[in-house]
Write a structure and sequence with these properties.
mainly alpha, single chain, 279 residues, 7 strands, three-stranded antiparallel beta sheet
Length: 279
């Protein structure tokens, strides 16, 4: 696994489309590596991959049983020891399957295809979004904005710009002034390739979005918007939502082993609306 991560980080291993794999995906590989090491320490045994050159039917069945036991115990570790839900457990198992495909296809090692049975029920959390009226209020209510601290005003502007363009937060932070394109018939749009898919998108900007870029023109340098870490943004946008008065209770539902469960907050109560808002 360590060599697999090194090959990915150095660019020797590429995606199916021939592009280099992003830093976020490599960080995910490292997190799975740590989980496997912690699982080994808890089980007090080493995970081994046996090469299947010439084996009898009985030996192949033993190997199948070994990986079924590993999968069952590893999922139990994720759910019970780590408190994970189906979405995270599924992403971890996906990385393990990618490792096995790397060994089989790129390294030519006969490890078997038992990894194909690693399946986890996928439960996507339901997103919580603002209504058009709430977003319009954030854009137009100058009295509310004047009451915010400067750092919260900046976060509110980033949030409004992100809602308007529909860009992922990483793409939002990569925007440069050169990404602005002035159209011959008038108006301005963003023209840029997205970091995840590489697809070139062209997004027209309304006047209030252009005003946000002009507001931070001197502070952001070559970037279009002020830079802010994702974690800090999430903390500050929750504060903006709380000050806006959007604090009605909402359930937070997650799937664990195919069963829908409600996640309670640390105080044992229901999550508030603003606690759901993230980048």
């Amino acid at each position: 696994m360590d060599k697999f991560i090194s090959a990915t980080a150095s660019g020797r291993r590429l995606s199916a489309s021939g592009k280099r794999i992003g830093a976020g995906t490599i960080d995910q590989y490292r997190q799975v590596y740590k989980l496997l090491q912690q699982f080994e320490a808890l089980q007090q045994t080493r995970i081994r991959i046996q090469l299947l050159y010439r084996h009898s039917k009985r030996q192949l069945q033993q190997e199948k049983n070994y990986w079924q036991r590993f999968y069952r115990k590893f999922l139990q570790y994720l759910y019970q020891e780590r408190g994970c839900y189906d979405q995270y457990a599924g992403s971890v198992c996906k990385v393990i399957k990618v490792l096995f495909r790397y060994l089989a296809i790129e390294k030519g090692l006969p490890t078997g295809e038992y990894y194909k049975t690693f399946r986890v029920p996928q439960g996507q959390p339901k997103p919580v979004v603002l209504t058009p009226a709430q977003l319009r209020w954030l854009i137009t209510d100058e009295q509310f904005v004047s009451q915010l601290r400067p750092c919260l005003q900046r976060t509110k502007d980033l949030f409004v710009f992100g809602c308007t363009t529909g860009l992922r937060y990483a793409d939002l932070m990569r925007l440069k002034r050169t990404d602005l394109q002035y159209l011959p018939e008038g108006g301005v749009c963003l023209c840029l390739p997205t970091g995840k898919t590489g697809a070139v998108v062209q997004i027209p900007l309304p006047d209030y979005a252009l005003a946000i870029t002009e507001k931070y023109k001197r502070k952001s340098g070559r970037y279009l918007l002020p830079r802010l870490a994702n974690s800090n943004f999430n903390l500050q946008i929750k504060e903006v939502m709380r000050l806006a008065g959007w604090d009605h209770p909402l359930p937070r539902l997650r799937q664990r082993q195919g069963r829908l469960q409600e996640v309670r907050n640390r105080e044992g109560g229901c999550w508030r609306f603003y606690e759901h808002i993230t980048a």
